[in-house]
TrEMBL record:
Protein name as it appears in the record: Transcriptional repressor NrdR
UniProt function note: Negatively regulates transcription of bacterial ribonucleotide reductase nrd genes and operons by binding to NrdR-boxes.
ATP-cone domain sequence ranges: 50-140
Taxonomy, superkingdom: Bacteria
Species for this entry: Acetomicrobium mobile (strain ATCC BAA-54 / DSM 13181 / JCM 12221 / NGA) (Anaerobaculum mobile)
Keywords: ATP-binding, DNA-binding, Metal-binding, Nucleotide-binding, Repressor, Transcription, Transcription regulation, Zinc, Zinc-finger
Family to which the UniProt record says this protein belongs: Belongs to the NrdR family.
Details of cofactor binding: Binds 1 zinc ion.
Key word Nucleotide-binding present: yes
Length: 159
């Protein structure tokens, strides 16, 4: 594995462990030339392509990095670990592929992300929902927060 700092073509594996229910291998590596440590992930390559149907009808290949990027943006400056978000994205990806369909709407993916974020952190959920559901005024925010508070008062949620 090439070093991201000095581009040296070899690295030493320091630690290896399975993550995300064993479907991914995480490796900590060290460059013997510059000493930089970095992490790599190995995932099983899928033969089947999953297409995402956008609102305007365009189709593009599913990209887990785009989902992760959106979740990271929603969790900015919140106490949510990258590992938690990676696990959520893997869960969404597994669920999508298990549907056994070749195409899925971006709206379906957005709902899956929103539901995962609701379980992870309420502020992240409201941030994501405000963009995804295109909140147009303060009333939309108040309605969504009221729903969260009703659930919390019901004793189900403590976030």
């Amino acid at each position: 594995m090439r070093c991201p700092k000095c581009n040296y073509e070899d690295s030493r594996v320091i630690e290896t462990r399975a993550v995300e229910d064993g479907s991914v291998i995480r490796r900590r590596r060290e460059c013997p030339k510059c000493g930089r440590r970095f992490t790599t992930y190995e995932r099983m390559e899928r033969n089947k392509v999953l297409l995402v149907v956008k609102k305007d009808g365009r189709r593009e290949a599913f990209d887990r990095q785009k989902v992760l990027k959106g979740m990271i943006r929603a969790c900015e400056k919140l106490p949510v670990s990258l590992e938690t978000l990676e696990n959520a994205v893997s869960s969404i990806e597994e669920e999508l592929y298990s549907l056994g369909v070749g195409e899925v709407s971006s709206a379906s993916i957005g709902e899956m992300v929103a539901n995962r974020l609701k379980d992870i952190h309420h502020v992240a959920y409201v941030r994501f929902a405000s963009v995804y559901r295109e909140f147009t005024d303060l009333k939309n925010f108040i309605d969504e927060i009221s729903k969260l508070l009703e659930k919390k008062e019901g004793g189900k949620d403590q976030r």
